[in-house]
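Budget justification, computational time. The allocation requested in the original proposal was used primarily to generate structure tokens for proteins on the priority list. As evidence of use, we reproduce two of the resulting records. The first is shown immediately below.
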Amino acid sequence: MQVSAFALQFVKFGIVGLSNTAISYVTYALLVYLGAHYLLANGLAFVISVLNSFYWNNKYVFKKGTGEKRNPWWTLAKTFVAYAFTGLFLNSLLLALFIDKMHLSPYLGPLLCLIISVPVNYVMNKFWAFRGNSKKVAK
């Protein structure tokens, strides 16, 4: 059975995502434990996790294709925007709902957010943040 390139890329994204989630959650939980407000902890964890995600996705998951031009600074900026939408804005909204309105544990809330944010992050990264400009190579 042959694994499609799309499926393999999604698995790689999942592996990066697992490490990224662990880094983000440990940062978040540590900051909450140290007395930081959960939204501040979420913001700081977000910045650290996006930098981690950008590095590994750029090197391992969404490699440049032949003849593809990609500005690393522009890609990093788009990565921050993509993750800001899901990892910061959407997760903060969901955290407020789960913690303030539903009275769930502040340690459980971020885990529930993953159900929504992971698929949205993959789509935004694949089709927007890491999409470079393809130039036809003269033969």
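The second record produced under the same allocation is shown here.
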Amino acid sequence: MQLKIFDDKMAMSKGAAEYVASSLRRIIGANGRARIVAATGAAQFDFLDALTSAPGIQWDAVEMFHLDEYVGVSPAHPASFQKFLLDRLINKTGITKHHLLNPGENPHEVAEKVGRELNSAPIDLSIVGIGENGHLAFNDPPADFETEKPYLIVDLDEACRRQQVGEGWFKSLDEVPRQAISMSVRQILRAKEIVAIVPDSRKAQAVKSCFEGPISPLAPASILRTHSNATIYLDKNSSALLTPDATLVG
């Protein structure tokens, strides 16, 4: 695992986008296609703006999978991650092969169906974020580090739900769903490469806990330290609590 720290959020987002764009060109050039997992949330805004503007990516050769989605939220709701991906990635690039999680009335059936498609071939690149509580996807602490299932139905803890209110996706805690479909921790780790994009001071304690504390289900994203090809993109604010010798400045 490697940490890369940038002066500010925009520089971090552009640096991550340049790297991901280069990886996609390389993967498609070698394999004729790229299978990716895409994250959502406020941390991804600037990154996706930069990535979707990058030249030379053959987007019709990209197959995209969805990292997580609320249970009980309409696909048209402003907080829907399906809507987020359609607006900010799929419709901007013309990706035609995508597997969105639409829980509907039977989230377990959807999780199994998309999970089978996900496991039909290796994932080349997973793009993820880290929550204020250290969650990876919607695997809140204590996360399940053991299950082999590709997707889980998970309960969202209060810290996670408060983050969604703080970011403006919902008006109150009562509006935030209590469950979600989430890609499992082990499934995320199966990707050949992982890029995590983690800006802002509100993530600083989670960054310190995950990358300087023990690898533990209580700090779910700490598991990224076990992956041989994971890069964590931070800005000065999100990295503020790290000790200087723990960082690699990018």
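A brief technical remark on that second record: The two ends are 14 Å apart (CA to CA).
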